[in-house]
C-alpha cells in the first residue's frame, strides 16, 4: 500500500509538469483554435534563458521572474509577427506554421547554446518528507506547489478580472467580443503571452529532472498532448486534471504492469490519446462541438 | 434633430458589392425600421454601421465621424449592435454576458444600477444570472442580447431581426420593450425586421431596401399606407 502511495505521489509530481504544458496548449487552442506544436520548444527556449541568467550569477528565483516576463513578451511578439498574418487560415496552414516555429526555435537554441547537455539548477532542497511509510521528495512537493500557484493565479485572472472575462469572451465568440468593444487582436496576443509564460514554468520545472538540451521537451510535449486530449482541448481545468491523470497512469503503468517497465512508459500517453479519441473525442471536460461558428 | 447620418454607403464581401450608395438619416431618440426582402442587404447595412465590415461613404453619429473604424472603437463611440443570431457568449453565464456589454465602461454603482434596470425590462434574466447563456431559450437569448447591448449605454442601438425564431407573442412583447427602452432612454434605434407590421408599429420612419438600394423612404404611416409596397415588399395587404 505504501509503495502504491509512493508511486501515486511521484506520478502526481510528473503530472503537474505535464499539466502546466497542457495548460499552455489549451490556452492557445481556446483563443485561436491553433494546436501549438511549438509549445514545448518555446518552453525549452525559456528554460535556456533562465539557465543563462543563473549562469550569469543571478539567484534562481529572480532569474525565474525575469524569464517569465521575457517569455510573456516573447509569446505576444510571436502572435503579432508570426501568427497574426495567418489568422483564420486553413487548419493545415496553422499546423505547418507552428511546426515551422518548432524547428526554428529548436535550431536557434542549438545554435545559441549548442546541443551539449547542461545542468539546470534544482530550485528545491534535496531532502524528502517522510510520512506514513512513504517519502515525498521536497522537489516533488515544490513542483506541485508551483503548478498549484500557477493554476490559482490563472483562476483568479479568468474568474475575477475584467481582462480575464474579456479573454473568455474572445474564446467564446470573437465576433461578439469585438462588438462589445474588446480589442480582440491584443487579447489573442495576451493569450500567447500567457501560454508562453505557463509553458516556461513547465520547462523550468522539468529541466532539473532531465538535462537541459534543445530536445528536452519532445517527450513532455507528447504527455502534454495526451493530457490536453484527455481533459478536453478547450478546458483549462481539463488540462490540469488530464495532466495529473497522465502522470499517475504513466508512473503506475511503469511500476506495476510487468511488460511496460520504464522503456515502454512513453507508450502510455499514446494509448491515452487513442483511447480518448475513440471513446470521447471531446475529452473529459471538453464541450462536444456541434458546430463551429 | 438628426443624429445618425449615412451618406452614399457602399459595402460588400470581397469583390461582391452588396450595398450601392445607401443614404439615410435618423433623428435623435427615433426608431427607424429597415424593411426589405431576403438578401436585400439589411444585415450588411447594420454590419457596415457597426464596423464589422469595411464600408465606403460617410457615417456620422451626433456629428462624430464613424466611418471606417473597427467595431471595438465604434462600441466605445456608443454604437451597440445586436447581430443576427444574437451573438450570445454561450459558455459564459447570463450575468457575465450582461457585464461584457458594459466592457467599455468603468465599474461602479452606475453600472450596477444599469444591471437592475435591465432586470426590470427582462425579469426572466434575473432568475437565470448564474446559468450558462447557451442554455437559455431563443427568446431569452434575444432578451439577453438586447440587455447586453443596453449595458453599454448606447447612443445608437442596431437590432437585426429581433423576431427571428420567436413565437409571435414573445416577439410582440420584445417590441413593446424596445419601444419602452427607446422612450425611457432616448436611445436612437435602427431595427431590421421581417415582421414589417410590428416594426412599423414602433418606428417613426422606415426605409425599404432592395438589392442594396433604398427604394422607398417615408414615415412609418406612409410606408404602411402604400399599398404597392405592402404587396411587393411587406407581404401583406392593407
Ligand atoms: N459573409 C458573407 N460573405 C459573402 N456574401 C455575403 C455574406 N453575407 C451576406 N452576403 C451576401 O450579401 C447579400 C445581402 O445579404 P444580407 O445578409 O445583408 O441580407 P439581408 O437583407 O439581411 O437578408 P435576410 O433578410 O435573409 O437576413 C446576399 O446576397 C448575401 O448572399
Ligand atoms: Mg439579415
Automatic annotation (TrEMBL), chain A:
<feature type="transmembrane region" description="Helical">
    <location>
        <begin position="188"/>
        <end position="210"/>
    </location>
</feature>
<feature type="transmembrane region" description="Helical">
    <location>
        <begin position="58"/>
        <end position="82"/>
    </location>
</feature>
<keyword id="KW-0813">Transport</keyword>
<protein>
    <submittedName>
        <fullName>Branched-chain amino acid ABC transporter permease</fullName>
    </submittedName>
</protein>
<dbReference type="Pfam" id="PF02653">
    <property type="entry name" value="BPD_transp_2"/>
</dbReference>
<feature type="transmembrane region" description="Helical">
    <location>
        <begin position="266"/>
        <end position="290"/>
    </location>
</feature>
<feature type="transmembrane region" description="Helical">
    <location>
        <begin position="136"/>
        <end position="158"/>
    </location>
</feature>
<dbReference type="GO" id="GO:0005886">
    <property type="term" value="C:plasma membrane"/>
</dbReference>
<feature type="transmembrane region" description="Helical">
    <location>
        <begin position="240"/>
        <end position="260"/>
    </location>
</feature>
<comment type="similarity">
    <text>Belongs to the binding-protein-dependent transport system permease family. LivHM subfamily.</text>
</comment>
<feature type="transmembrane region" description="Helical">
    <location>
        <begin position="216"/>
        <end position="233"/>
    </location>
</feature>
<keyword id="KW-0812">Transmembrane</keyword>
<dbReference type="InterPro" id="IPR001851">
    <property type="entry name" value="ABC_transp_permease"/>
</dbReference>
<feature type="transmembrane region" description="Helical">
    <location>
        <begin position="94"/>
        <end position="116"/>
    </location>
</feature>
<dbReference type="InterPro" id="IPR052157">
    <property type="entry name" value="BCAA_transport_permease"/>
</dbReference>
<dbReference type="GO" id="GO:0006865">
    <property type="term" value="P:amino acid transport"/>
</dbReference>
<feature type="transmembrane region" description="Helical">
    <location>
        <begin position="12"/>
        <end position="38"/>
    </location>
</feature>
<dbReference type="GO" id="GO:0022857">
    <property type="term" value="F:transmembrane transporter activity"/>
</dbReference>
<keyword id="KW-1133">Transmembrane helix</keyword>
<keyword id="KW-0029">Amino-acid transport</keyword>
<keyword id="KW-0472">Membrane</keyword>
<keyword id="KW-1003">Cell membrane</keyword>
UniProtKB/TrEMBL annotation, chain B:
<dbReference type="InterPro" id="IPR003439">
    <property type="entry name" value="ABC_transporter-like_ATP-bd"/>
</dbReference>
<dbReference type="GO" id="GO:0005524">
    <property type="term" value="F:ATP binding"/>
</dbReference>
<dbReference type="InterPro" id="IPR027417">
    <property type="entry name" value="P-loop_NTPase"/>
</dbReference>
<keyword id="KW-0813">Transport</keyword>
<dbReference type="InterPro" id="IPR052156">
    <property type="entry name" value="BCAA_Transport_ATP-bd_LivF"/>
</dbReference>
<dbReference type="GO" id="GO:0015658">
    <property type="term" value="F:branched-chain amino acid transmembrane transporter activity"/>
</dbReference>
<dbReference type="GO" id="GO:0016887">
    <property type="term" value="F:ATP hydrolysis activity"/>
</dbReference>
<keyword id="KW-0029">Amino-acid transport</keyword>
<feature type="domain" description="ABC transporter">
    <location>
        <begin position="4"/>
        <end position="236"/>
    </location>
</feature>
<keyword id="KW-0067">ATP-binding</keyword>
<dbReference type="InterPro" id="IPR017871">
    <property type="entry name" value="ABC_transporter-like_CS"/>
</dbReference>
<dbReference type="InterPro" id="IPR003593">
    <property type="entry name" value="AAA+_ATPase"/>
</dbReference>
<comment type="similarity">
    <text>Belongs to the ABC transporter superfamily.</text>
</comment>
<protein>
    <submittedName>
        <fullName>ABC transporter ATP-binding protein</fullName>
    </submittedName>
</protein>
<dbReference type="Pfam" id="PF00005">
    <property type="entry name" value="ABC_tran"/>
</dbReference>
<keyword id="KW-0547">Nucleotide-binding</keyword>
<dbReference type="GO" id="GO:0015807">
    <property type="term" value="P:L-amino acid transport"/>
</dbReference>
